[in-house]
Amino acid sequence: MIAGSLTSSPHSARISRVDQVMLQVCLALIPGTVAMVWFFGWGIIINMLLASVFAVAAEALVMKARGRPALPAVRDLSAVVTALLFAITVPPTLPWWLTLIGILFAIVIVKQLYGGIGYNPFNPAMAGYVFLLISYPVATTSWLPPDVPSLLEARDLVHLSFVDSVRLIFTGGLPLETTWDAVSGATPLDELRTRLDQNVLMADIRQSPLWGWVGGQGWEWVAAGFLLGGLYLIAIRVITWHIPVSLLGSLALLAGLFWLFDPNHFPAPWFHLFSGGAMLGAFFIATDPVSAATTKRGQLVFGALIGAVVFVIRTWGGYPDAVAFGVLLLNIAAPTIDHYTQPRVFGHARGKS
Amino acid sequence: MNTSSQPHTQASPGLASHPKVNPSQKLWKFHGGVHLPEEKDLSNQGPVVATAVPKRLVIPLAQHIGAPTRPCVKVGDRVFKGQMIGEPQGYVSAPVHASSSGVVTAIEQHAMPHPSGLPAPSVIIETDGEDAWASDLPEPVTDFHQLDADALRTRVRMAGIVGLGGASFPSSVKLNPGKDQPIDTLVLNGAECEPYITCDDMLMRDRAADIITGARIIVHLLGAERCLIGIEDNKPEAIAAMRAAVAEQQPQTSASIKVLVIPTLYPSGGEKQLIRILTGKEVPTHGIPAQIGVVCQNVGTVAAVADAVLRGHPLVERFVTVTGRGIAKPGNFRVRVGTLANELVAASGGYTGELAKLVAGGPMMGANLATDAVPITKATNCILALTPAESPDPGAATPCIRCGQCAQVCPANLLPQQLYWHARAKDLDKVQDYNLFDCIECGCCAHVCPAHIPLVQYYRYAKNESWAREREKRASEHAKKRHEAREARLERLDRERKAKLRKKKEAITPKTKTVPGKSASVGGAEKTAPAGAGETPIAGGGDDAGAQGTKQPADRQTETAGNAP
User: Fold this and answer.
1) Which sign does the torsion angle of CA B184, B189, B193, B194 carry?
2) Chain centroid, CA A38 distance in Å
3) Which end of chain A has fewer CB atoms < 10 Å from its terminal CB, N or C?
4) ipTM score of complex
5) pTM exceeding 0.80
């Protein structure tokens, strides 16, 4: 009798596949995305679709050019995850060609030119975003105001319909009799920077209609959505708690210290956690396994340092938010962090690996 | 059972009735491990079936780690059950016995249950069906306390007992830790953490009393103070049987014997992992349990020790699980060593038809078999026939996404991913920096890898390459030493010959007046030569400069010798 295939143990059924892991990440993005669509309109979804199409096409073309089968690379859904994260990060009115440029940079240069999935030292979505941020700063930072009636009235702003969004993205055309000023607004982090620079006290800044309970109006819900999705990813063990907890923890700790020291000039730690890209970054971006630290202790260091970079840039740097910079900066350091944080191997003396 | 998408995960009905993990006794944890789908119900429902004497026995001469045995029977010899047919060679070795009576018809190479598929020398016995025991078996010992450690060890050795958990290390060696390594704890391994395999479960149910007696024998032999028996909580009947046996025999021993119920988690049955769980101690890397005062034995091994001491029976049979959904009627069998696996399969109702893989051992660590015409050896605990659904083709491996799942489940707390990168790059120094040799090849990492990378295969490859490199290094060092020694010897001989020649010449022409300068140069060469010759062979690795140093005077000497006439 000749038995079936001869392979090395283990012979059991494997538990998961890469595409399942990626799909779980996509699912976990749903709550935050829903909140974004609710407050910032359909542009988010349009960008997600556009970015996904561009990303998959770019991935397939590069694989073909590299003489490798395109289908397995596309099927693992990693390009889609990159596209979704990119689309969430950029403003919902970003012209389509900027999305194209950002995605091409992310997929072709940052991911594929380094060898494709698993080999890229940088998070592709963040690299694509930062590339646009530096090259096209205005377009990349022009956010819509959250669709909260009181806020729109207070600031005399117009909300964009679905058709308006489509037209804006594809033709750059604003609705008739509307100016750019009437549709765009500063993000809470932006507003905070400007006002603090004008020596306005925190207490007064918080009176702005842009402010909600813990973060900016609308933004706090988006952050809560990503927090929820992130907790789901931890629960189903796609990610572990180490990076999110250390990232948010170090951000909150630093913010808390300065806030306790001078609450007039520094926002509260929960404002930091629920503003900008903190939650999205902590659960979905810094945890990108390919470019993050891999040892458990290394992940704690990695997350904590990102949190610190975010706080420092938000407080004293040239950009209102810094999650993308923090992640990219620490991506460079990840191999070194791993090197110095290897776990103690079973049966080895303590204090030495 | 936290994994959702496993094909055969059943909510184990026995889970509710699982005995409580010891309320009193503290247990420790090891890093990682995986919860595997429970497949034990397939094979542990019926009683253990004693198989009939097969017509033909194929008994491999090497069924243990260590030196193979030398056959001590000839073709045509009549042999009896329990008669030694393979003599141990060396200390780490164990004899092999006939497992039934009959006639030796051949001593030849035969396929083995080994992944290499390479055949091994085996004794083929045509049985006579009488199953008659040899007449010169050791006397049964009713009170083992009468025997001292050496006598007991000799019994264990001559009974051919090796570790029955699968590693088959000669037990007598394990039971001889040396005087400078006092043993306080005997750990009995009844964890049986591989899914599907239930032979130890059934053995503990059927032969609990013998296992406990065997444990007492070993405790006595080692002078240990306690015996900890680790059993996973998915074997409630075995736990009950073992506890009852302990209660019965505890009064007869001063050592404390305890059955400890441990959580079901693969690979709790790994020796180092089980010792950690039960005692909290870690076996040092590259070390053995004796270094921390522990000896660990599989429950089957201990039952065999009881057989050897109480009954004088050598190890000629064992319990074997035949299971998997590729088997019509899975179950457990009491099998004579040397019975062919295909006869066991036939006794289990044959194959169901759809066979993806045939495995000797469990799904996590077992060896893939190319054929079922292989004998059951002392190490064979399971013949596993997996259907395509149970062992689906994982498809081609995709690139590692560094998700780190492997590191999360590694019981040795290694970084499997880094090991993989470096093994793939054939960076043998780097894989050792990452402690490749602490890998126990349990397969947890490969099992959880979403990219379906055959990680363990890479580690085996890297280990083999490292060993090969080590061998090569040693061989080349050896060759270098030999070469240097030869050079030195030739030089020495040359010098001696010339010195002799010179002396002869001097003897022949004593009155011939030589030029003073020449005489001095000859004398100088004579002085240098012995010093150089003495140096090279001792230093062994003498460098080139040294060789040059000794060579030059010799050359000069040749010159002078040439000029002399």
Assistant:
1) positive
2) 18
3) N
4) 0.86
5) yes
